Structure formats: structure tokens, C-alpha cells
Amino acid sequence: MTAELALLGTAGAVIAGGLMESLSHRRRLEKIPIRIHVNGTRGKSSVARLIAAGMRAGGIRTCCKTTGTLPRMILPDGTEYPVFRPSRANVIEQVRIVKTAVEFESEALVLECMALIPYLQWLCEDKLVRATHGVITNAREDHLDVMGPSERDVAWALAGMVPVNGKFFTAERDHIDVFDHAVKDRGSEMIAITEADVGKVTPLDLAGFSYVEHAENVALALRVCSDVGVERSVALRGMWEAKPDPGAMVAYEMDFFHRQINFVNGFAANDPESTQRIWKMALERYPDVEKKIAIFNCRADRPDRSDQLGGVIKDWPEADSYLLIGTGTYIFARAATNAGIDPLKLVFAEEQSVDQIFEMIVELSEGSSLVMGMANIAGVGLDLVRYFANRSRRRAFK
Q1: What is the pLDDT of residues 298-320, one digit of tens each?
Q2: Exposed, middle or buried by CB within 10 Å (0-12, 13-18, 19+), for 12?
Q3: pTM confidence score
Q4: What single-letter DSSP state applies at residue 313?
Q5: Closest by alpha carbon to 263, among 245, 243, 282?
Q6: Keyword Transmembrane helix, does the record have it (predicted)?
């Protein structure tokens, strides 16, 4: 009987402690009047950074946390610090981020949603963020093993983080009805970014960035900044001056023993639509190269992504070689050959070091070459970007 009472007492203490922490977290949230929750398949890290930069430029004391290529906490003065994770990523870390933002007396907090499982996306919004402004960049075919099986299912999963009685912004068009349903259900206001809004982002506006930024991302971020009272010109200037995510699309040009190697970091794009788009952009940027080398960084824990990309590349502008790095490369190779890619064009560098991968790139190059990384930036992808960044001329991708 004594043991049972002790167990009940312990359970009660745990429950009471959880309730107290929940109430404390709710009070902290109330101290931050502007809370912006950013989600989407592609571009959410970039959009979170753009919104935060625009608001900082407008004089709003803003903290931002992104979970893109590398998890980062961005403070009100623009300085960045890595987010400490004692083990794997966990949505509960948002509680710690909110506490930090309050300690810095933030007027605004921009948080990138870090959940994939649909019910966790809802939990992050309803329990951890309670956004005044929800933002979804787009809904495309990615993480279908968790949010699929179809692109429309991805949209429904993302809709879980539409705020209650807030404002909701999106640049998605194909599945706007899904988000409209969620917005009406939760009593929020829909602000959809139209083609006309994107058209207002001029080539001159985009020329201010030192990397490739997409007009849709800029239009979306500018609209959010406008809603919190920051003028367009002020917000745009802040965005130009902000540090990009390490996964931003940048070109690195290298002269290596009479070989001109032009390396483009496109690793952050990993759904078929986005990846094909940036591959075409790279080919337009370097139309006269003698060799075109497409690098796919595969991950054994992302088999659906490898299978998707391998199955569609036959329909893209052709590369001379497909260099497969990372792990689980056979999944990509099987899908690519089944789709009609010449197996002799596949070059395997499974679990090879960056130095070894670079040597293989040199062997595949001839005169001048375009080398572009795609599929995943985690692991060896980021290492390869750093390798070229430390040895090459960085060029704005214009």
C-alpha cells in the first residue's frame, strides 16, 4: 500500500510539474506580441531568415530560429549561434527557444517549424508557438513516407499548423483550397501571395542578394513584414544585408590545373520540381561548359527521395555524368536506370571522403565543367560545399 501511494504521489508530482511548465511557457509566449511560425516543403529556412531580417531593419526587436541546413538561433543584433542538441532534434526545444527570446526582450519571434509528422505539426503550433502569423511557403512532393502518399496529403499535413484566430500567409497556389479550409475552420485570415505579387519583385530587387533567392520567397516575406508595419524598401534592404542559410544556392568557381570547375550548391533542393528548376538555372548560368556533372547526395534514411529523383532525371536536360555520393546510392541508381538513364553515366562514390569525391570530380571534368550538388545537404553534402567555399572564388548567382 505504501508503494502504491508513493507511485501515485510521484505521478501527481510529474503531472503538476508538467502543468506548471505549460503555464509558464504560455506566459512567456504572451510576452512576445508577434509570433511567426514558418513551414512548407521548400524555402522555409530562407523565408524565416528574410522575415526576421526585414523586421530587424524596421526596428522590431526580433529573434529567429531556423532548422535548415544547420539549426541556428539568430539574435536581435543579427548574430547567430548554433542550437545545442544533446541528442536528436525534438520539437520540445521550441520551449527553450521561446525562453531565450523572452530573455532578450524580443518583440517578435520567427520560428521555423521543425515537425514532419502531421499531429506534431499541429502540436507545435497549438501548444508551443500559438502564432499570430502562420506562413507556409508551398506544398510539394517530399517526405512522402511521413506526410504522403501524395502531394495533396502533404498540403493537408502542413495545414495542421494554421494558427487559430491569427493571420495565415502562403505562396502555394495548387492546393490553396486545402489551406483555405483550415483557415476557415480556425477563424483565421488568409493572405495568399498571387502571381501579381511575385511579379512585383523585380530583377533589380533580386540582384541585391549575394546568392540565389526566389521571387516567391521574397514576395512572401515582404508581405509578412508589411503586415507588421515595416515598409517595403526598409525590409528589402534588411534582407539584402542578412546572412543567408548555408544551403543557399551559390556558385563557387575554381581554376584547378587548367580545369575550370564551376560548383553550384543546390543541395538544399530535394523535391523533383525544385531540383529540376535549379538544374536548369545552373545550365543557363554556365551554357558553354564542356562537361556537366550532376552530384546526388543520397541518404539511406531517405529512400523515397532517392527513388523520386532517380525516377525523373531522365526527363531533365542531360548530364554527362551522375556522381552518386552519401549512402544508399543503389536506390537512386536503380530508379534512374529503370527510367532510362545510361548506367555507364552513373559514377558511385558511396561513403567516400570529400577529398576522394573531389578527385573524382577532377577526373570527370574536362576543360570547363559545371558541377552541381543536389538531393540532400546533410553530411557529406555540406562538407563538399565547405570544401569548395574554402578553395574557390564565390560568385553571386546572377
Answers
A1: 999 889 999 999 999 999 999 99
A2: exposed
A3: 0.84
A4: G
A5: 282
A6: yes
* Model pLDDT for residues 339-396, shown as the tens digit of each residue: 999 999 999 999 899 999 999 999 999 889 999 999 998 889 999 999 999 988 766 5
Indicate the helix (H) or strand (E) that contains 195. Answer: helix 195-199
CA geometry: angle at 71 spanning 244 and 298, to 5°?
Answer: 90
d(CA 290, CA 369): 6
**By C-alpha distance, which of 359, 364, 377 is closest to 289?**
364
Q: Is residue 18 part of a domain?
A: no
Identity of the residue numbered 314 = K
pLDDT in tens, 264-309: 999 988 789 889 999 999 999 999 999 999 999 999 988 999 999 9
Same-domain check for residues 212 and 319: no
Question: How many structural domains are present in the chain?
Answer: 2
The pLDDT of 200-226, averaged and rounded, is 94
Residue with cell 560545399: 385
Q: What single letter denotes the amino acid at residue 304?
A: D
> Are 94 and 141 found together in one domain?
yes
